[in-house]
Write a structure and sequence with these properties.
The chain has helices at 12-18, 21-27, 34-46, 100-112, 129-137, and strands at 3-6, 53-59, 66-73, 83-90, 119-124, 141-148, 156-163. By secondary structure, the protein is α+β, with helices and mostly antiparallel strands. Strand 2 and strand 3 form a beta hairpin.
Length: 168
């Protein structure tokens, strides 16, 4: 099981050193520079663990190394009152090691802690087959509906849904 902690400035060096084009394209549409990453991580540190925006760092339980992260957001475009946006990502050195499903599962468990959240929404690019496979393994299903990609620009994503209550 991966360890989760609040994402913050202590993760700056690891993200900056291990980001690659794939991560950049999926997260913000470009590589982080030191200043913009520091600004984002400082904002994350101010977010409450039970707040509407939650970002987590996923750590190797043996070494404490940053592997990736993810988020649970109650505030995002297109969400219904009982929905949360769910995200997950792995740094380049952690990919291909079977960590996607445990990471996404840990983020889902965080989302299930919110009694207001009945369903998670995931936005996945059509070409991101690795993320689609992870989403299927955690029980999410594609809706066939398109949406603007979270990284912005003209890219599109497909909307996936994951029930958070009932059978899981």
């Amino acid at each position: 099981m991966l360890g989760l902690e609040h994402l913050g400035t202590r993760h700056h060096a690891a993200i900056l050193a291990s980001q690659d084009a794939l991560l950049a394209e999926e997260i913000i549409g470009r590589a982080w520079d030191a200043a913009s990453l520091a600004e984002f991580l400082t904002r994350c540190e101010g977010w409450r663990e039970d707040g509407p925006l939650q970002e987590f760092a996923a750590l190797d339980p043996r070494t404490g190394a940053l592997l990736g992260g993810g988020g649970v957001h109650r505030l995002a475009p297109g969400l219904a009152r009982d929905q949360v946006m769910l995200t997950y990502w792995l740094l380049a050195p952690a990919r291909g090691r079977g960590l996607g499903v445990p990471l996404a599962g840990a983020i889902v468990q965080r989302a299930r802690r919110d009694p207001r959240a009945a369903e998670a929404v995931l936005l996945i690019a059509p070409e991101n087959t690795a993320s689609q496979a992870v989403a299927r393994r955690i029980g999410a299903r594609p809706t066939g509906e398109g949406a603007p990609h979270p990284a912005g620009g003209s890219r599109r994503a497909e909307r996936w849904l994951l029930p958070l209550r009932g059978e899981h």
